[in-house]
Amino acid sequence: MTAIDDPRVQRVLRLPEQDEALWQSDLERFQRGDLTLTRQSAGEASIKAAQRLLIFLGYSTSSTGAFSIDGNFGRGTNRAVAQFQFEHGLTRSITRDPLCYACTWQTASQNIVGIPNAKLTPPTLERMLDEALAMIERNEVMCGDFEEAIFHLNALHRGGLLSCKAIETRYGAFVDQGIAGVEAEGIRIVRNWPLAIIKQETGGIVRPRFEQHLLTRLSNGDRKGDFVDLRFRSMSMGVGQILGDNFKRVRAPSARRMYLSPIAEQVAQIARFLAGSSAVADVVSRSKPKEADFRTVARYYNGPGYEKHHYHESLATWFREFDAIAAAA
């Protein structure tokens, strides 16, 4: 394998603080081609490296649809490997039907057992590594920037979210760029709104989520539709956690392009999504919102069950905290 020798690919596979001796041992196993990861085999370090690679390539690794790095080759990681193999013609034993198994939102993680066991064999691993390197070379990576993609990948691995102050520091300039961009489209939005959405939805860490029930529904409605496209449409993504199926609403060419969008464009997508409702568009143009305004945005962004999640209260808290940060600057 040559891709695995690339230092950028090695950054995809491990945390910078990971034990060098352990990493070297895993690297030698990869290079010898003796690694066959299955749901029943391989060590935690190797599985985490594989999960990081799968996430970098855009695949969910948890049966819940989360993008997680836990060292467990469970049903979610098995699904990711199976999806990759199917999409790249690497297997005849896994077809579209079991990857689009019948389920609802409530039963998706239970019915995942219908996907056959997959093996991450050396040929599959080599193809994954080659794909990762090609994505890096083309700069077709999450958030449209390799360093940004690595930041979020490492943050997913370590766990933890950003404070409001850290979000302002990291994303403030991007928020200003995104807002300036949509102003030319006739959209006016006070910057605290996308900042509060970012804090509430992702805590400043891009952590996509795959919805199996949506993939199944989309595939059933379009049996000849491109599987990769449907998979990206079945994911919520970006700092605003917007569902890929909304790509037209946020004026993206495709769901995959949403996934690859730079942070400033992701902010613009949040603004466009909010502007999809005239009532919400009016609210987010206000710099001094009332309690009812937070409810309006919460209902639109989080759905009718927003009260159960205290979504409106959290939005209000974050909005005011960003106000305080701006006042202290």
TrEMBL record:
Q: Which SUPFAM superfamilies match?
A: PGBD-like (SSF47090)
Q: Please report the stretch or stretches of sequence annotated as the Peptidoglycan binding-like domain.
A: 45-91
UniProt KW keywords: Hydrolase
Domain N-acetylmuramidase: from-to ranges: 233-322
* InterPro entries, alphabetized: Muramidase (IPR024408), Peptidoglycan-bd-like (IPR002477), PGBD-like_sf (IPR036365), PGBDSf (IPR036366)
Gene3D superfamilies, per the entry: PGBD-like superfamily/PGBD
GO molecular function per UniProt:
hydrolase activity
Pfam families in UniProt: Muramidase, PG_binding_1
Return the protein name: Peptidoglycan hydrolase-like protein with peptidoglycan-binding domain
The species is Povalibacter uvarum
